[in-house]
Structure formats: C-alpha cells, structure tokens
Specification:
The protein has one domain: DNA polymerase, domain 1 (Orthogonal Bundle). It is 54% helix and 4% strand. It has helices spanning 15-22, 29-37, 53-63, 66-72, 75-79, 86-99; strands at 41-42, 50-51.
C-alpha cells in the first residue's frame, strides 16, 4: 500500500508549493490549516496508520465546523484531539485567527 504522505504527492498538488505558485486565495481552508500544522498525526511506518496534514486538517474543520468554529474552540477541547499537543494548539489559536 502506497503512503499518502504529502511528500509523495506531485509537487504541483502540495499545499506549500501551491501557496507559493498560486497564492493563499487559491488554497482550501484545509490546505491552509495543513500548512499551519506542518505535520499530520500518527505514523507512516509500515503497518501503522498515519494521517497526512491535509487529511488531519479536513477532519479538524469538520469536527469544529470550519475555521470559525476552530477559532472559537476551547483549548481543552482542542487538546482532547489525538495528534494535537500544546504546541499545535498554540499554532492553531494564533494562526487561525489571522485567516478569518
């Protein structure tokens, strides 16, 4: 099974590269959040499921009902999400407020 790591995607489809080439207005909220998060969660080692940053971002946006919901989320609720720690929650709180 081939990994769904972003580094395995075609260069033109990767969020960071698209941001540079096309500008932030051309990216989805999930792609922008993926850039903020920098990494997904879990692992991509053989036999252990992992989730790339874009898929993790989509899941967060669904759970919190978009960027506005993520911006309004309580720190405690964010810290309950597997894969989010103090550093990632701090990034979300600081950076998401700048996106909306």
């Amino acid at each position: 099974m081939k990994s769904n790591r972003i580094k395995n995607w075609p260069v033109k489809e990767r969020p960071r590269e698209r941001l540079i080439a096309e500008g932030p207005e051309r990216l989805t909220d999930a792609e922008l959040l993926a850039i903020i998060l920098r990494v997904g969660r879990g692992t991509f080692k053989k036999g252990i499921p992992g989730q790339n940053a874009t898929d993790f971002s989509k899941e967060l946006l669904t759970e919190f009902k978009g960027l506005r919901g993520l911006d309004r989320a309580h720190i405690e609720d964010l810290l309950k999400i597997p894969g989010l720690n103090n550093a990632k929650v701090s990034q979300i709180i600081c950076d998401v407020s700048l996106l909306i």
